[in-house]
Design brief:
heterodimer; A: mainly alpha; MetI-like fold; flat; B: alpha/beta; 6-stranded mixed beta sheet; 4-stranded antiparallel beta sheet; 9 helices; 10 strands; AA_ABC_transptr_permease_3TM (chain A); transmembrane helix (chain A); cell membrane (chain A); transport (chain A)
Chain lengths: 223, 240
């Protein structure tokens, strides 16, 4: 057993697998960034819909949010990539499907972040805006949203990290991100130990700095 | 300037206002007093539709608030409101707090709006705080900024909802001074207050409310020194 440990220091995989990690990481990051960005737009819209007094608008948002939060992201990916594309005869590329799934999935969680953020702003702020004659849209845009957004930053950062890790399940739809490429590498070499350690570090190298930055931002917002 | 006819307001089953009739003339300062829960704040909030009106009519400056065709935003822009808890915008500087309304509602250019905002701040004695954020101000300063913010819209009427109730006693004076200056300039004011001294000195008329109705109203010297209604007597005697 301890003999095996020497491979930790002298494995040829470090040099051989690194290009795959690097290549996969780029796709992982692209899918995450684009997906979460679109998810933020979706989440903002549905989050505000959740605050509507109109029952239909509220209902639509609630169905979307609960449907996506209540099903596994793996199932959503399979359904969208294989199911929906078959059904409507539209062939998504794996990247398109991956971005779409992250956007829809993160969008549902972000909608709740947005709702919570907006609700946390004191009602008196809205009243002050409206009593000056501002419309509800102006009041939201200039007064409520900037304050709500500040409070949304920490949970949005968390969601970014969660979504980043979620991209690993896109291996099942053959999206060539980090996990998929390393699985392929392992299946050709037949040696899983070191390559999968490298895969872990591939994620940690993004997530740990993200978490550190996030904690700093949180501390600064506290003041 | 303000005419209120048979105003009713309910929150669900709870009837908070049960038929208010009142008039406020131009340049008049009307103080509304009464025990907590009497509906005086709700009454004030109905005057600019921060509370939906259940029944009755409110007319301000010749326009009916209750008319579904009325442009409520336009009407509100002519009615200044000062809140108990200031409700300043914490993410903006004092100057931005004061100039936001004129810019966004009245379409005044930023430079012009900021110049006028600065003048308003000088007027309430806070010209040096323009670049400060509300969080760094004392309660009394916050409330004076809030008054400047309302004044920046050039309102025809100012509504004050217990403007000094959240302040430390030693800070009340500064805010009342600003309000007195305003009254002397001929601003039409409706003030919900617990400051009997202010009501007596500055009020042209005092309204005593209890249980959602106006129990008694009159000149301050009459109402304070010679109250006719039993409840007014009871309320005032508790204050002494």
């Amino acid at each position: 057993m301890f003999d095996n440990l020497t491979v930790l220091f002298s494995s040829p995989h470090y040099t051989n697998a690194l290009p795959f990690i690097w290549q996969g990481m780029q796709l992982t990051l692209i899918v995450t960034f684009v997906g979460v960005f679109i998810g933020f737009v979706i989440g903002s819209i549905f989050g505000l819909m959740r605050l509507s007094k109109n029952k239909i608008i509220y209902g639509i948002a609630t169905v979307y949010i609960e449907a996506l939060r209540g099903t596994p992201i793996l199932v959503q990916a399979l359904f969208l990539y294989f199911g929906v594309s078959e059904f409507i005869g539209l062939n998504f590329t794996a990247i398109q499907a991956g971005i779409l799934v992250i956007a829809l999935n993160a969008g549902a969680y972000i909608a709740e972040i947005v709702r919570g953020g907006v609700e946390s702003v004191d009602k008196g702020q809205t009243e002050a805006g409206r009593s000056m004659g501002m419309t509800s849209t102006q009041t939201m845009r200039y007064i409520v949203w900037p304050q709500a957004f500040k409070r949304m930053i920490p949970p949005l950062g968390n969601q970014f990290i969660i979504s980043l890790k979620d991209t690993s399940i896109f291996a099942v739809i053959s999206l060539g991100e980090m996990t998929y490429l390393m699985r392929q590498y392992v299946s050709t070499t037949g040696d899983p130990f070191v390559p999968y350690i490298m895969l872990c570090f591939g994620y940690l190298i993004i997530t740990v700095p993200s978490m550190i930055i996030l904690r700093r931002v949180e501390r600064r917002l506290d003041v | 300037m303000i005419t209120v006819k048979d105003l009713h307001k309910s929150f669900g089953e709870t009837k908070v206002l049960q038929g208010i009739d009142a008039e406020v003339a131009e340049k008049e300062v009307v103080c509304v007093i009464g025990p907590s829960g009497s509906g005086k704040s709700t009454f004030l909030r109905c005057l600019n539709m921060l509370e939906e009106i259940t029944a009755g009519e409110v007319e301000i400056d010749g326009e009916k608030l209750t008319d579904p065709n009325v442009d409520i935003n336009k009407l509100r822009s002519r009615v200044g409101m000062v809140f108990q808890h200031f409700n300043l915008f914490p993410h903006m500087t004092v100057l931005d707090n004061v100039s936001l309304g004129p810019r966004k509602v009245n379409g005044v250019e930023r430079k012009q709006a900021e110049k006028e905002a600065q003048e308003m701040l000088e007027k309430v004695g806070l010209g040096d705080k323009a670049k400060a954020y509300p969080g760094s101000l004392s309660g009394g300063q916050k409330q004076r900024v809030a008054i400047a913010r309302a004044l920046a819209m050039n309102p025809k009427v100012m509504l004050f909802d217990e403007p000094t109730s959240a302040l430390d006693p030693e800070l009340v004076g500064d805010v009342l001074e600003v309000m007195k200056d305003l009254a002397k300039e001929g601003m039409t004011m409706v003030v919900v207050t617990h400051e009997m001294g202010f009501a007596r000195e500055m009020g042209d008329r005092v309204i005593f409310m209890d249980k959602g109705v106006i129990m008694e109203e009159g000149k301050p010297e009459d109402l304070f020194d010679n109250p006719q209604n039993e409840r007014t007597q009871a309320f005032l005697s508790k204050l002494l």
